[in-house]
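Hi V.,

You were right to ask for the full record rather than a summary. Here it is.
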Amino acid sequence: MRVAVSKRFHPSQRRAPRAEGGWSKPLLLLLRLLILGIALGVITGTALKLLAPRLSSASRQVTSVVPSKGLGQFEARQEISQLSAQLVQLAARQPDLKVGAFVLVLDDGSFAQLHPDQPLPAASSIKTPILLAALEAVDQGKVRLNERLSLNKTVAAGGSGWMGGQPLGSKFSFHEVATEMIRVSDNTATNLLIQRLGGKTALNTRFMELGLTGTVINNWLPDLEGRNTTTPRDQARSIALVDTGKNLSVRSRDLFRETLGTSHTDTLIPTGLLNGLGGGEGSTNEALQSKGVRAYNKTGDIGIAYVDSALIELPDGRRAVASFMVKGPFNDPRSTDLIRAMAAASAKALVK
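Predicted structure:
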């Protein structure tokens, strides 16, 4: 009978572990790190791709809601007493005229005023807050700039503008309607916007929400009776809310300013500013620009009431908003003269 005998090795006879080459460990580690890096890159890229739309949307929301501090704000902080006194004196020379005025430098809050919250006939100056509401609706996706609006009997109007003379059923883009409302103060264009934005009641509600407490639409344009009202402070505020970035996207803010810049009438605030700065050669706006001043304005005129409101760029880079309103006898030249005189006084006070 054989007995199995276990075979023992002498320590010196045991097989030594296989020695790996000197470069194999670093290369293997490098390969593993490379594979891990690629995997992490793929995962990160996929996650960013999925999150990008949300991040972009959040960024846009923050941009539209939080205005830049450099744009100033609509806040009256320090009264320019001398200018306010001058406005009072100018109005006192014509005691039978009802006068309102408000001037505010957006950058530092300096201001001057005369009955700034007294409601007076708005005439075509009502078109400025309507333009603000119209561009808000564009930003909110409620209307499109290329949307076509159809001329109908309700909105067709006489007075300034050309759209009311077109055949019923004629169609105009929302952008063209908004532009013509300011460029040639088209009354039919204004009525088209009022109708498209929900009517007078809806717009009046929005004006209240915007803090334009004295701005009310009672009549379709041209409102020769003067039942539509606004105030100098409201007029200035409606421009300031845009230019300080409070209410519109950057694109709509630029469109608002560009549209105001198409206004043809430069006989009130622009002419008054130029008079206050000593006059100049060429067209009013060209002469103003040569002095470092530019005015984006919208006038109103129904004979018994005159208004002009503007965003004014000053030579030192500051921006001001101003509105002057006068109610008086029909086609009385004292009304327009007074607006020019108040603008001239403002120019002397603001441009150093």
